[in-house]
Amino acid sequence: MNKVHEWLHGRWTVPVVSGLLILASLASSRLLDAATWGDILMVAAAVVAGTPVVIKAWNALSAKVIGIDLLVSIAAIGAVIIGEYWEAAAVTFLFAIGHALESATLNKTRSALAELIAVAPDVAVVLRDGEQVEVPAAEVITGETVLVKNGTKVPVDGVVSGGAGSIDEASITGESIPVEKATDDKVFAGTITTSGFLQVTATGVGADTTLARIIHRVEEAQDAKARTAAFMDRFSAWYTPAIIVMAIIFGLVTRDIVLALTLLVIACPGALVISIPVSIVAGIGRGAKDGILIKGGEFLETSAKIDAVALDKTGTLTEGRPQLTDVVPLHADVDRDELLQTAARAEAGSEHPLARPIIEAATAAGLPVVGLPEHTEPVPGKGIVATIDGHRVAVGNLALIESEQGHDTADDARVAQVVQELAAAGRTPMVVARDGQVLGVVAVADQIRTDAKEMVARLHEHGVKKVIMLTGDIEPVARAVAAQVGVDEVRAGLLPEDKLEAVADLQRQGYTVAMVGDGVNDAPALATADIGVAMGAAGTGVAIETADIALMRDNLLKLPEAVSLARRTVNNMRQNIVIALGTVAVLLAGVLFGGVTMAIGMLVHEISVLVVIGNAMRLLRRRKERTGTRSTDGTGSSLTHDEARVTQPA
Questions:
Q1: Which of 53, 137, 308, 450 is placed for a possible disulfide with 155 were both Cys, Cβ 3.0 to 4.6 Å?
Q2: pLDDT at 624 over 70
């Protein structure tokens, strides 16, 4: 019974029944010589195929909307009235087939959403009172321990509390290579374990998971109208009544009712109406598969116009995790280990972000950093002064050391030269002094992402005229990073409000600006930009909901990929408009100069609809970006804790 019910309410029921009635009519009139029965069956075919069309037209009229269904309804009813039963049946039958094919192919363009929904887990195995209990995934309670075995879906968002394994996160980030997971790593609902056994503490369940937020965002985005789509809706609202008026005028002037009805059929703007939405749905769907969430058609169109990209430095062009890069002893009686240990012990009482890499490097080198200094005095904008074993140790910039020594350190050529060279190389130098004596210089640097240079090059390839770095860091460091990644302009020493002004300045110059940042200190600039882009948004609900584009992977190359996708989608929309308008123009000429009947007109019209949909579906194909030369040069992008350079003074 269920299968029968499904078939009766399926998309192909109406065209199949109508088609069988048409065949029966032709058989009756031509083979059995029963013309009357042939006419009755032909009218029945028109009624079966036309009834859903008339109902939709009536509902649309009730909502004060004049659409394509009204044109077909008028043409079919008119054809029946004047005795053109074959034309009425053919038009409605072809329209029904076209509608079924359109529905089927449109569902395919939404395949990304269907795939996301399909990966949503159904059940979870949780530990309750020491026992494994299988429950619906939506009924897991936040904080419960969920067991994830090899080959199963992760049912919740959470943090690994035990075990280890690898997980395929393609459904969230678009990355097909499994990711290794261990204690304290995040996992996401809908991802699949490829090895290992994990115990996961649930942090997000049901509608609160990253997957659920992505599905919700893609649903909204695919339904959101672009500016062009909104224009097409307004155009159709005027176009359809104009066609009806034109058909009436032609009918009155030529006294040819068949011609008037044929004009109604061939002028249907079906392909034109669907030309934009189908491209948007396909483009956003392709992006979702690749880990690029685009908020809607309007933002997709705007993204295609991007010709300036503003990038934050820390956490975007760089890893956001400073590391020790240089230890330079400048005192005859002090070696590298003593210099590093002294700096680390002083920084042990500091809350400054640059203290962590110094302490971690000392610990990794086996140098004891035990306890806190006897006294710690942060000096804002300069560094820190600490008392260690009765000695006064200062770690900071030249201005701090000058104040400690009581004279101008610029006279010490060695110190000034090392500081200058390190800053020019993109590192942040810190002079270490004990009791007024300079011991040496240590330097840290935020590691440049390996794909930063290639990302900038690809943005230029995709038509972006200017890539600008906006950073709160000092000028020498910013320029050193910029030189390595190839950005066009650098603005350093900026506060959040300065970044906002920089974006506004680019807009005043006529650029369409995309701002890429972490969404916190960059929030004002992200909001001001034409397109705000959040990077590495997997697991960050706020970023997914607020960003115009959310890149689910922490991968810079996804940015030019998003720009390329937007441009291809808009080009696809334009192609579809040309196809739709060209078809209508050719058919109109064919009717006016003879040769195009009502049935032929509807057939060509439905073919044009399918051509438009097929063209849009090309966007669903995964496009391979070329593999460029990755940036591997530059000390700031290649050193690790264990590879901290030791620069000996000349």
A1: 137
A2: no
- Helices of type H across 348-436: 355-364, 398-405, 413-424
Q: Are 146 and 200 in contact (CB under 8 A)?
A: yes
**Alpha-carbon gap, residue 634 to 645, rounded angstroms:** 13
**Neighbouring C-beta atoms of residue 537, cutoff 10 Å:** 29
- CATH topology assigned to domain 290-318+448-562: Rossmann fold (3.40.50)
Catalytic residue among 69, 157, 168, 312: 312
Parse the chain into domains and list their residue ranges: 122-155+157-204, 290-318+448-562, 320-447
Note whether 475 and 468 are within 8 A (CB): no
In angstroms, the CA 173 to CA 256 distance is: 61
Across 546-558, b (16+ Cβ under 10 Å) vs e yields bbbbbbbbbbbbb
Q: Which residues contact 179 (CB under 8 A, 6 or more apart)?
A: 166, 167, 169
Going from the C-alpha of 377 to that of each of 374, 387, 434, the distances in angstroms are: 10, 9, 15
Non-local CB neighbours of 464 within 8 Å, separated by 6+ positions: 306, 307, 308, 309, 560, 563
Residues with Cβ within 8 Å of residue 64, at least 6 apart in sequence:
none
Instruction: Tell me the two tokens of residue 449.
Output: 């992402």
Q: Where in 389-530 does DSSP place strands (E)?
A: 391-396, 428-434, 437-448, 466-470, 489-491, 513-517
Query: b/e map of 134-168 (b: 16 or more CB within 10 Å)?
Result: ebebbebeeebbbbbeeebbbbbbbebeebebbbb
Tell me, yes or no, if the two domains 290-318+448-562 and 320-447 fold the same way: no
Q: Are 527 and 503 in contact (CB under 8 A)?
A: no
Helix (H, G, I), strand (E, B) or coil at 435: coil
For 446, other C-beta atoms within 10 Å of its C-beta total: 27
User: How is residue 641 annotated by DSSP?
Assistant: G
Q: 614 CB contacts (<8 Å, ≥6 apart)?
A: 105
Average pLDDT along the chain? 78
Query: 171-175: long-range contacts (C-beta < 8 A, 24 or more apart)?
Result: 171/115, 171/116, 171/119, 171/211, 172/210, 172/211, 172/214, 172/291, 172/538, 172/552, 173/291, 173/538, 173/552, 173/553, 174/289, 174/290, 174/291, 174/292, 174/552, 174/553, 174/558, 175/291, 175/553, 175/555
Confidence band for 625, pLDDT divided at 50, 70 and 90: low
Active site residue 451: no
* CA distance linking residue 294 with residue 548, whole number of Å: 6
Tabulate helix, strand, coil % of the chain (nearest 5).
Answer: 55, 20, 25
251 and 82 in contact (C-beta within 8 Å)?
A: no
pLDDT in tens, 39-85: 888 889 889 988 988 888 888 778 776 667 777 787 778 778 877 77
Strands 308-312, 318-329: pairing kind: unpaired
Helices (H) and strands (E) in the chain, counts: 23, 20
Domain 320-447 fold is Calcium-transporting ATPase, cytoplasmic domain N (3.40.1110)
Closest CA to 582 of 320, 359, 269, 364: 269
Give the end-to-end CA distance of the chain in Å, rounded to a whole number. 90
Angle of helix 336-347 relative to helix 355-364, nearest 10 degrees, comes to 130
The label of the residue with tokens 């115990």 reads: 199
Residue range 122-155+157-204, CATH number:
2.70.150.10
Taking the C-alpha atoms of residue 524 and residue 527, their distance in angstroms, rounded to an integer, is 5
